Structures are given as C-alpha cells and as structure tokens.
Amino acid sequence: MNYVPVRISTLKSHLPLKFNVYVKLPSKYLLYVKNGDEIEKDRIQNLKKKKVRKLFITESDEQNYQEFLDECLSQTMTDENVSMEEKTQVVIGVSETAAQDVYEDPQSAKAYKAAKRASDGLVKVMNQNDGVLKAILKRTEQESEDLIERIQAHAVNTSSLCVAFGEFIGLDSSSQERLALASLYHDIGFLKVSPEAQEFFFQDIGQKHISELGDYGEHPFLGAQMLQDKEFATPEILDLIKTHEERVNGTGFPKKLQKLPLEQEVHALCCYYDRRVTCLKQQDESVINDLMINEIGNFNLETLTKFKKFLKTNVL
Ligand SMILES: [Fe+2]
Ligand SMILES: [Fe+2]
C-alpha cells in the first residue's frame, strides 16, 4: 500500500473522517483514526506536543480526502456555531495543503483544485473577521528551515495578505480570488531555476544588479510559462505571476515595466512585503517602517500609504 501525507490541521473538524488515518512509525504505518470516526481535539494536542505535523492516508483514499476538505470548508464557513478561530484553522490547513500541492506539481488539476478551494475559503473567512490575517501570519507551523516549506508558507501568507489588503482598498471579491490564486503560484519559477538562483529567494539581493542574479531574474516568467497551456490559467492569472517582481517605475524585473494596473501592483506589493518577512525573516514592524523610506517611487504613493495603514492595523 502507498501512503500520502496529510496535514493534521486539515483534519481538525467535527466531521467524521471518510478515510483511515495512519501515523508513521520507524518501521510501519499504524492505524490512528478509523474511517467514520472524528479525530479528537486532545489527540491533536498530543501530536502537536510531539511536533508531529503530518499524518498519512492511503493513496487510494486521496479522492475521499479531497471531498472531505470541500465538505469541511463549506460546512465550517457557513456554520454559525463554529468559532472564528476554528474557521481560521480550517482555512489555514486548506491553504497549506494547496501550497504543498502547487509546489509538488504546479501543472496538475489536483493542485489547481486545491488552490481554488483555498482562495475561495480565504476570501470567505477574511471578509467575515479582521483578526484572521494576524492568525494566519503568526501561525507557528511555518517556522521551518526547509526551503520548500518556507516558500510554501510565503505563498500562503502572500495569498492572505492580498485578499485582506484587496478588501481593505475595495477590490471586489472576484479580484480578491484572482489575487489569492495567483499568489499561491507566484514563485513556482523557483522549481525551474538553478540551485544558485534558488538561494536568492532567501537572500537580501539589495544592491545587486539583476545581471548578477543568474536565472533568478527570470523566475516570474518561468513560473507563468509552466502554466501557460493550462486551461485554469487565465490571462489575468498569468499576468499576475509575470509581473509580481515589477515596480511602477521600471526598477522591477523581468520586463522593467513603467506602470502596473492596481491589481498587479497590490500583488507585487504583498509579494515584496512577505518576501522580506517570511523568506528573509525580517521583523514585520521594521519592514513596515521601512516602506515609506525605501519603496517610495517603486510603488504608487497612494498604494503605499494605504498599505502601511492596513498593515499597522491588521498585522502588528
Ligand atoms: Fe518572486
Ligand atoms: Fe515571492
């Protein structure tokens, strides 16, 4: 039998499971929760204490797991008896799973389904409560040294920031959903660049000229290229991926564009901010304070001013 990992955070629900869940021991997989049972809160706490983050299901149950996630999300979001905290936890689990699927196989329909589910969930839950963004950005699960896990955390954080900031400045929900979706994919070019260029995702490239960065400078284009013949990748999504490192004054890359439509500017700004916090591990407060010093000109003043106000009230 083949086993596939699932995040524990996606199993926290009062819905009975539709599949067996296993825990991995050094020599074998042990049945942990039976199909039809619910996973109890204290058992989850126990696993957390032991720093176990993943459980396993059999490969043949993948479809059942996907259906469970859909059901879980739609039921949880509309149930008034479910606390906001629980809703947030479900959305975090669903978003992390999506980021993981996207980085495992960006071109697959499975990853797209997961990303769509996460984007819809994020828009729903964030529009209901202001505290959600902070809970997502401060979650402890993202403190990984593994580079792929860090870039996945960056995808989830950027996606959440885009939705919340989009809402803050009055973008409509279809725009928020596009932003959420594109953000989950924005750095998949990471998978196509050289190992040296992969290091630059986690380094302050500050004063370096783009010509010193090897194919890092191509990652937005390479990412979009991976998706361009996929039905789910609309021209708007591809453009958001291609322009996520652009600025409004020609200092971005790869095209050195001179202006960006607002939706793309919001995306580029959220990508920029969260890169510094999640990928470069800089303090959120100092990044926020720095925005009006170093980024003036790179983004429109009005957008920057609103972003700073938004971050001060919703993130700090
Ligand atoms: Fe990027
Ligand atoms: Fe990024």
Q: Please, could you describe this protein's structure?
A:
This protein folds into 2 domains: 1-82; 83-314, Orthogonal Bundle (Hypothetical protein af1432), CATH 1.10.3210. The protein is mainly alpha-helical and 316 residues long. The longest helix is centred in the middle third of the chain and has 22 residues, at 147-168. The protein is globular. A two-stranded antiparallel sheet has the order 1-4. Helix content is 54%, strand content 6%. The structure holds fe (ii) ion (2 copies).
What keyword list fits this structure?
globular, 54% helix, Hypothetical protein af1432, 316 residues, 13 helices, two-stranded antiparallel ribbon, 6% strand, mainly alpha, binds fe (ii) ion, single chain
Quick recap:
With 316 residues, this protein is mostly helical.
What ligand species are in this complex?
fe (ii) ion
The residue ranges in which pLDDT falls below 50 over 5 or more consecutive positions are none
What is the strand content?
5-15%
Structural class: mainly alpha
Q: Work out the helicity level.
A: 40-55%
Task: Annotate the secondary structure layout.
Layout: E1 3-7, E2 21-24, E3 29-33, H1 41-49, E4 54-58, H2 62-78, H3 84-104, H4 109-126, H5 132-137, H6 147-168, H7 173-185, H8 195-200, H9 219-227, H10 235-242, H11 262-279, H12 284-294, H13 301-314
Antiparallel strand pairs: 1-4, 2-3
Helix pairs in contact: 2-3, 2-4, 3-4, 3-6, 4-6, 4-7, 6-7, 6-11, 7-10, 7-11, 9-10, 12-13
Bound molecules: fe (ii) ion (2 copies).
